[in-house]
Specification:
With 538 residues, the protein is α+β, with helices and mostly antiparallel strands. The protein contains 16 helices and eleven strands.
Length: 538
């Protein structure tokens, strides 16, 4: 009769629901709960059984959650009391966890900020950068000359817009002390490519390119607006002087607008046209930005630009022979050394986290071995193995959580120290933001670390909770399996340490080699000065 009952669908359904409860709860109450459910099922009519099943499912989900929460509260209280009794172990474990989690979080935050996080433009993946390809001379990314850019703009069909821009600096006079500020001269459609509106006023448009002298518009940064004009909304229409040339302020950009790179304080129009001749194809100073049309892929755009480059080489064989076009998404400007440094830093932080986890696993294993007698007594009075494992994992998560909180603080402090790894060529903030994305990453690292350094010691020690554990505890001995586990953890720690040390040694050697290179002139007692000459005069 019982075998037939077990095979009934209703029993199978309810047994599956009971899997939501902890194993210890099922062992104590499961059989009686199945018996009661089967009785209610037999007594209910055919029309009421669907409602009974739904009620049973909702009741089980709710009560299973409450049961888990109650056990978790008990485990947390016990873990906190237990850890407070061993302050030396607790402080050491938290500091080790904080160092591993903090280093990993800081480096991953910077890498995410530079390599993964979307750029601050709508549909940023369609914004591209273009260069002339002089690979035959060792320059795959050369700034285009004005005549070549104008040919690209005239012949290309894959772009919504293709616009030029240049960086530069100017002497800002008026509304305070004179100041050398960085800015950009941009084509009239650049802001339409970026699709970022002004915080106050308007952005530049194509009609602004041909504005008369003395009426030329300019858009200023949030920093200039606040420091020079006191964040006054009456700034629009006022005049500022850059290199003795007057400009009329038409807009103020948001504080998080960075184009073409950080620390740009003004944007004025760039004029190209009849003054640029074909004989000027060797004058490389422009930069080019484009937005692809809907449905056009990067590969399609590259194919068309290769065709245009071939046509230009045929039309101007002397100036364009062997020259092509390089096109890449805006973020993929980051190549070579900056990318390698970031990826190397991420790899080093993973090694640090691995070393921290193996250290903590060894600490927890030693602590668990000292508590074998306690676990054996708890098992003797009815505690199951999974209940003991859960308690040890709770101890691990308490340590990981405390280390995660401290590690987050360390990551927030360390992230600004890594700003030199954030390339200036990207239109992003210098310091990675502390936001939910960073906190979510820290949470994942914390949970992973807690599982990594808590699971093996818990399974190894709690698997043996019979009377022999009391004897081993009294003798202070350890089993051969436990010794193998501790040796494996030590080996893993040594391997990670060796990898980290070798990597640091190679980087140090490379730095020393660079410093030993003879520049060809004496560098002692030499001072260098950088100055910018007004373009209107020079």
């Amino acid at each position: 009769g019982s075998a037939a009952m077990k095979a009934e669908p209703r029993s199978t359904f309810y047994r599956a629901l009971l899997r939501l409860y902890p194993k210890s709860f099922r062992a104590e109450y499961g059989a009686e709960m199945i018996k009661d459910f089967n009785r209610d099922w037999r007594e209910a009519g055919a029309g009421a059984r669907l409602g009974l099943a739904a009620t049973a499912a909702l009741d089980t989900i709710w009560n299973a959650w409450r049961t888990h929460a109650d056990i978790t509260r008990q485990d947390l209280r016990y873990a906190i009391r237990s850890l407070r009794r061993t302050p030396g172990f607790t402080i050491t474990a938290i500091l080790v966890a904080a160092l591993g989690i903090g280093a990993t979080t800081a480096t991953f935050t910077v890498a995410d900020h530079v390599l993964l996080r979307p750029l601050p433009f709508p549909e940023h993946d369609r914004v591209v950068r273009l260069w002339e390809d002089h690979s035959s001379r060792g320059y795959p990314r050369m700034e285009p000359s004005p005549p070549n850019f104008l040919d690209w703009q005239r012949m290309a069909t894959v772009f919504e817009r293709l616009e030029p821009f240049t960086g530069g600096s100017a002497s800002l006079v008026g509304h305070g002390e004179p100041e050398q500020v960085n800015g950009a001269s941009v084509g009239g459609g650049v802001f339409q490519i970026l699709r970022r509106p002004a915080a106050l006023g308007r952005v530049l448009t194509e009609s602004d390119v041909n504005a008369a002298e003395g009426e030329r518009p300019i858009v200023i940064s949030d920093r200039i607006w606040r420091t020079r004009f006191g964040a006054s909304p009456d700034v629009l229409g006022q005049t500022i002087s850059l290199d003795d040339r007057a400009y009329v302020i038409v807009g103020v950009m948001p504080p998080d607008f960075y184009f073409p790179s950080r620390n740009r304080d003004f944007w004025r129009t760039l004029r190209l046209g009849s003054t640029e001749s074909d004989s000027d194809r060797g004058n490389h100073y422009l930069a080019a930005i484009g937005r692809l049309k809907d449905g056009v892929s990067i590969e399609d755009a590259r194919a068309e630009m290769d065709l245009i480059a071939a046509q230009l080489a045929q039309a101007y064989p002397k100036a364009q022979e062997g020259k092509g076009v390089t096109l890449a998404p805006w973020r993929e400007q980051i190549t070579g050394q900056p990318r390698v440094l970031l990826l190397g830093l991420v790899g080093a932080s993973i090694c640090v986290l691995l070393i921290a986890c193996t250290n903590l696993a060894n600490l927890l294993l030693s602590r668990a071995l000292a508590r074998r007698s306690e676990f054996a007594v708890r098992a003797a009075i009815g505690a199951s193995v999974d209940r003991l494992v859960r308690q040890m994992l709770t101890d691990s998560f308490v340590l990981a959580a405390c280390g995660g909180v401290l590690g987050t603080v360390l990551a927030v402090v360390a992230a600004p120290l890594l700003v030199r790894l954030v390339p200036t060529s990207l239109p992003i903030a210098e310091v990675p933001p502390t936001d939910l994305r960073m906190l979510a990453g820290t949470l994942l690292v914390t949970i992973g670390a807690g599982m990594a350094f808590g699971l093996l010691p818990a399974l190894r020690v709690c698997r043996k909770t019979d009377g022999s554990a009391l004897k081993d505890g009294a003798r202070g001995g350890t089993s051969r399996g436990t010794e193998r586990l501790r040796s494996s953890l030590v080996v893993a720690e040594i391997v990670a340490s060796v990898v980290l040390i070798v990597s640091v040694g190679l980087l140090t050697q490379a730095l020393l080699n660079v410093q030993r290179v003879d520049p060809g002139f004496k560098t002692d007692n030499v001072m260098t000065v950088r100055t910018t000459l007004p373009r209107i005069k020079y």
